[in-house]
Amino acid sequence: MEKNPQLDEKLLRMAAEARNQGIPVMQDQGLSFICDYIRSHKVRRIIEIGSAVGCSAILFASQSPKVHVITVEIDRDRFEKALQNIKAAGMESQVQVIQGDALKEDTRIKVQTAMQGKEADLVFLDGAKAQYISFFEDYQKYLAPAGAIISDNLLFHGMTAGYRKTYNYNTIKLLRKIRGFIIYLKANPFFTTSFYTLGDGLSLSVITEEGYRQRGKPSPRSILLVRP
After folding, report:
1. N or C: which end of the chain has fewer CB within 10 A?
2. Residue 33: in which H helix or E strand, if any?
3. pLDDT digits (tens, 9 = 90+) for 111-140
């Protein structure tokens, strides 16, 4: 798809405004990696967990007019801002935002309805890091054959490499969750996972043929009980 300078400028303004308000926006290296993946693998349907203000969903959809993104945001204010930004970018026909907790049944039903019986080529996890295993378990069932799940923030500002005494209890608890998720990915026989240090750390998990056949079934207990 040809470059759209006007859209690029709008996205820069949206991202700058979000950062000024303390809303996390994905780093450029990570975004470029995902956009390259979308183009090279001809991704058409994406589920995103964690819309923030919609910048990433807009960028993903801009890679091709054939790309459609369903993005879920739990925070009401961010959801409203995402709607506003998507409209300003002229992407209402390609991006649908759902407000709710991605782990709640009513939200999953909305996602399933929005998918219209189709499968996702890509699921992007950028929501609450402590819930990554639950997100992964719940949303792998929407994947198409050879579909992938990309997870962001696995380095968490470099903190997952080791704990420091200066970290507070909640930070240490979160870091343990992220490290547990990394171990879970490595142990999961239904996905082939690669890790990248781009941006704030990414993983790319491609579902195997057996994984596709087993979608929707709980992962083996030995995987879910992993500990960092």
Report:
1. N
2. helix 28-40
3. 999 999 999 999 999 999 999 999 999 999
